[in-house]
Amino acid sequence: MAWAFYVEHYTNTTQACRDNKYTWRHANGSIFIGTGEDAGNDAEPLGIFYPRGATLGGSTQVNGMCFTLPPDSQWDELATLTGDSSWNSTRHGFDGYIHPGLRDVLGSVYEALGQSKPNSTADLINRVGRDMNRLDPTRYDHSDLYTMVIDQNADHVRTGARDYIIDTLQATYANGSRRYPGLTISTQSFATKVLFANKTTGPARPRATGVEYILKLSGIGPREELEQHNIPVVVDLPAVGQNLQDTYEGGITVEAAQDFTTLFTNCTFGNPGDPCLAEFQLNHTGPYTIGSAWAALLFRSSVATTPDTDIYAYGASASIFSGFYEGYAEAQAPPSTFWWSLVKMRPQGRGSVTLRSADPFDTPVINFDYFANEGGVHDLQALTDAVEFLLPAMNNTAGGYAPFTIIAPEPSVSIEQGIKDFAFGHHCTGTCAMGPANSSSSCVDSQLRVLGVDGLRVVDASVFQEAMGAFPVLPTFMLSQKAAGVILGDL
Fold it and tell me: Domain Glucose-methanol-choline oxidoreductase C-terminal spans what residues (predicted)?
């Protein structure tokens, strides 16, 4: 269901190899995951595992189902950037399991936020259960705790693009005839380039007549890079592949002085005889109805560039999430574990995607260039602020759970270095950014039309000039609905 990409987080190879999630391949073909110091002399560096969905529905079928609206201000900024007011911001509760240890941890975070501790589990549920996606332009304007919103139906089953596609494909009229008989879905195809008419001669602009894969392989991109790979240039468009960004995640992992209560005690995580899986399949109840994490924190760092909070933290106990590597889904942690993943919204750092070759089956060179230059320094400070807020707050936890033993960021180095060694991401956006047609940083206009050609639009998260909110799924769904109206309006 997933296509295995490997990416680089850093241009600095020394820093890159400090990550214990780095993947290496030995001369005998075996894979090693760990730091460069432990990899061995014959190890070939592959990079950081970065799986992408390779099934109907794409990555919405393999993601963590985090479903969060971005701040309204980001849509308004997009409208200002493009001069197109149609992008302005004009336009769902909690019934989860709160165990005593989680109540104590979140109570200490409330105190650190300057709020009173919840006086009961019912009070905590009421407070964290406010809708993070409520239609309220002030929902990001102060630090506060919520419950994570996830994208699932009433049976606690993942929903996403696949469901919409299948529903559309199977739609019928009252008489049973297909509503869209011309719609075909090919799941065993691999696109290689975009086909153009008027490609090389005459005054007419190139016009797309079919799609076989990405822009650069089709001759749309920076001229120098295309010519390096002997790809005929259709349009010299420097912005393609630039502006790569990710909502970095820097993590906190601690072990409490005593175990947390957990619903997962009897679960075998999909192995034969798993009682939790049997309960879910039979009744859609039990531990496997729980999403990525219970708790979500909006936090404003000292370097936030707008009045909005700029850190989204989500966390849970008796489990662990520390990023992607082969086998990450099987990772387990002691029941005394608590973790927070700290997502940097509005990241300032930028990377790039460049061609490795002209072979469409050859994965590109993807380098996020974490924490580089002034923008990266800003991002690192924001994540450091969040760590420095949460660690003392957690050590004030009642109920016998404190003091906590810090696992990550690595306590033997500075917080900043620990974040750099640990950071990860899986929400790449921005490499075909929307903007004014006369800007060298623009790839598409406000109607999502690729600049310099006719008949070709891009409708995915690559068009966002800035990563939208903490997670790209809901903003991308909103983008697709907007694009449908734009395209139908042109017919």
Answer: 347-479
